[in-house]
Amino acid sequence: MTGPFHPLLKGVHNFRDYGGYAANGGRVRRELLYRSGHHVQASDEDLDALRALDIRTVIDLRGITEREANPCRRHRGWAGEVIAHAGETTSMPPHMDTGPGATSADNARNRMLAVYTRMPANPAMHAMFGRYLRALADYEGASLVHCFAGKDRTGIAATLLLHILGVSEKDQLEEFLLTNKAPTLAVLRAQTVPILEARMGHKLEEGAIRARLEVDEEYLARFYETVRERSGSLDSWLADVIGVDEFLRDRLRAKFIA
Predict the structure, then answer these.
(1) Residue 121: its pLDDT value, please?
(2) What is the pLDDT, as a whole number, of residue 100?
(3) What's the pLDDT band for 69 if we cut at 50, 70, 90?
(4) Cα of 148 vs its chain's centroid, Å
(5) Residue 127 CB-density burial (10 A; 0-12 exposed, 13-18 middle, 19+ buried)
(6) Residue 13 is inside which H or E element, if any?
(7) Does a structural domain hold residue 247?
(8) R_g of the chain, CA atoms, integer Å
(9) pLDDT over 80 (residue 1)
């Protein structure tokens, strides 16, 4: 390993290993847990690099419309399992939500905060977060979790696992914010900004673009805050809403902490 963004994929945004953090007296294993944006523009070289990682399970957090519009490329001979929702997980990719006044940075930031307010109450995401965690416990080999941009739905999924494993909130936030250091932002920008500007009929402010394509400490804080308002604590929400019992926690910890 030479860092979390390894291998550096040219056509896939935000691909990284989200292991390595201190957890329950050990460390989260490396080279088993990967996250990214979608793979619709993965190059042949990217697919060769992914083949070498022996990823056997893909958890695709996108809804059916997103998947049909942006089918992911898999390497030749791919024989793993893709876990996905039969319906919609959101009305559109969260960072592509538009509306009146959506060109400004403040508006874009508020729309992203609304995404993190809605996610704790979204039954489709409840189902997919549960399937993601159970798949990690059930299947051998490396896994990949992704959505469109690989930062909002995927960011929360990765955070939930790290929390269960006993990673500190400080390190959970550090991992979440690594999105802003991804060297492939131009990939997501090209996939997103022309579509948004065509829908709105005018240019977006640079601040509005960055608020949509990056993440912020306040986004994760809003998710935590909303969960605690609904369930009292993140652990209660995981147990009561996502179905994470002590048996599943123990299995995940035994598998991913070294």
Answers:
(1) 96
(2) 53
(3) very high
(4) 8
(5) middle
(6) none
(7) yes
(8) 17
(9) no
